[in-house]
Amino acid sequence: MSMPKRRELFALACSALLSAALVAQETPSLGTPVSEAQLQGWDLIVSPDGQGLPSGSGTAAQGKEVYIQQCAACHGLEGQGGAGVPGLVGGSTTSRPALLTVGSYWPYTSTLYDYVRRAMPPTAPKSLSDTQVYQVVAYILHLNGLVDEDVVVDSASLPKIEMPNHAGFIDRSQVQ
Amino acid sequence: MSEINNQNNKESLEHVAANGLINRRHLLGLGLAGAGGLIASSVMAADSTRVEIPGWSKVPGRDPSGYGSPSSFANSYQRLAGAPSAVLPGSGVSRTPLHLLQGNITPNGLHFERHHSGIPAIDPAQHRLVIHGMVRQPLEFSYEDLLAYPMQTRIYFLECSGNSGANTGATAGDSSAAAIHGLLSCSEWTGVSLASLLDETGIVDGATWVTSTGADGASMGRSIPLNKALRDVFIALYQNGEPIRPEQGYPMRLFVPGWEGNVSVKWLTQIKLADGPANFRDETSKYTDLLPDGKALQFTYPMGVKSLITSPSGQMSLRRQGLHEVTGVAWSGSGAITRVEVSADGGRSWADAHLDGTGQDLALTRFRIPWLWEGGPAVLQSRATDSTGQVQPTRATVLANYDAVNRYHFNGIQSWSVSAQGEVKNVYA
């Protein structure tokens, strides 16, 4: 997102806030203060700049084990997918018919960490440790030829791994 | 005698477009007797059996009950539910039976469903809504807290971004209106404005996005720009007057009027302000629209101007010739519906339908027009216009904008063919 756009957004937000303030004076103010420290481990959002990534690390070599035990039954040994289950490797946005996978379509590695940690495996979401998630994320990136087997993936290195389709999206969020 | 009546009426009807579309006001002026003359012989064929008082008028009926349910004779009013997924427990959809319903409001039990990890069983006493991130004071609200806030009530449609995606396929499936378009519902929603809660937390300079997640197994998340969040987004607690149903996010959901349904996060538990979108899986891998050149549109939120005829519609059959009411629903994610035109000849000629809606922004608008079917083939279409001047495009126009794999935001004109036998089918025309 370019800078001028951000300023524009902020100006809009401010003007809307003024009117919201009028409404809000009538609310009973029942919210209870909570601290970000209390939300650690509960807030699972990971953004593209790596904010929200936990401590810990993993390599693809370690992740192979996790993948075979926890993921391969559905997504296939090579990440090729199965009946009703998306593939995690291969494809392209320009080949026809287009095949959209983590490797060919996803713009950021953060999304992979975020999604696997909150939603996979579907039978037991949030059952993997943060370290296991790093490991299996590294393995899926490795299956896509994006990291070597022994590269240590952690909160510092993961956001720096550039996805092939990182420039493939057109932001339409202000076309409302 | 009836033959002659029939002839006279046919000639006096004011045709407003080809192939039998009729001016509604004119028809109302004719009165029931006049219109009745058009309806074929069954009306005339009354026999001479005496009319009896029915059995239920001779015994007391059943007692009042705590929570009502539909008549056992109306038990065909069901959502069209997909089979459970073996690989994704609880995931899937059920569709609103649009072809069976009337009016503009969807009954709560028939509101469409889309879940990514089933419907969680949430105890409202233990549920929390946390607002944090780029706010001055992170706050936590209980369900009971929110019930004490000033509320707002609005009628809004909700449509899944993938609704009608079936009609992007290469060949037209022989499907019902529900199967194709049933990821669409409309309710009266009541809840607490998000702006008022954000005023309580305060907003840190530089915050431009609101990211939200639900308390379901998938912890599904979406991001929306802060300017929309402050405009009309609210925390929905009631649907058509009662607490929202578990499949709609009980005890609370985000409600983002006019935008693709997925952003109205159900079982809402987290609102986090940030200086950019989270880029969740469901706004990168999914709910992005692939273009012919391999780029994809991201954050395409408003649902396009759209309509469909719900009766007659796919897999129905017209059992008699004569007068029928063509009816359907229209809506737009950008404003109110100002006009719906109907064609009975595949889009060559059009007539304005009567709008029977609330005229409100971002709500369903029922439309109706009389149609005299004389047994010939027909292709019925409807075309909506909204208050911003956008006109519903043809199927071909929409498809030309995207790659063939895209299933999102399809708002092309629906065509139903009527055969000489009265069979109604989904067609591409």
How would you describe this protein?
The complex is a heterodimer of chains A (176) and B (429). Chain A has 176 residues and is mostly helical. Chain A has a domain of 114 residues: Cytochrome c-like domain (Cytochrome Bc1 Complex, Chain D, domain 2, Orthogonal Bundle), CATH 1.10.760. Helices cover 38% and strands 5% of the residues of chain A. Chain A has a two-stranded antiparallel ribbon with strand order 2-3. In chain A, helix 5 crosses helix 6. Chain A is globular, with a radius of gyration of 20 Å. Chain B is α+β, with helices and mostly antiparallel strands and 429 residues long. Chain B has 7 helices and 26 strands. A 5-stranded mixed sheet of chain B has the order 7-6-15-10-11. In chain B, strands 8, 9, 12, 13 and 14 form a 5-stranded antiparallel sheet that branches. A 5-stranded antiparallel sheet of chain B has the order 21-20-24-25-26, with no helix packed on it.
What is the molecular shape of chain B?
globular
Principal-axis shape of chain A equals globular
- Order of secondary-structure elements of chain A: HEEHHHHHEE
Can you list the strand order of the major beta sheet of chain A?
A: 2-3
Largest sheet composition of chain A: 2 strands, antiparallel
The CATH architecture category of the largest domain in chain B equals: Sandwich
Number of strands of chain A: 4
Spans of chain B of at least 5 consecutive residues whose pLDDT stays below 50 are: 1-8, 31-37, 39-43
CATH fold-level label of the largest domain in chain B: Immunoglobulin-like
- What is the CATH class designation of one domain in chain A? Mainly Alpha
User: Quick one: biggest sheet of chain B?
Assistant: 5 strands, mixed
State the fourth-level CATH superfamily of one domain in chain A.
Cytochrome c-like domain
CATH topology of one domain in chain A: Cytochrome Bc1 Complex, Chain D, domain 2
Fraction of residues in H or I helices of chain B = 10-25%
Task: Indicate the radius of gyration of chain B in whole angstroms.
Answer: 24 Å
Structural class estimated from helices and strands of chain A = mainly alpha
| Count of the separate structural domains of chain B | 2
Proportion of residues in β-strands of chain B: 25-35%
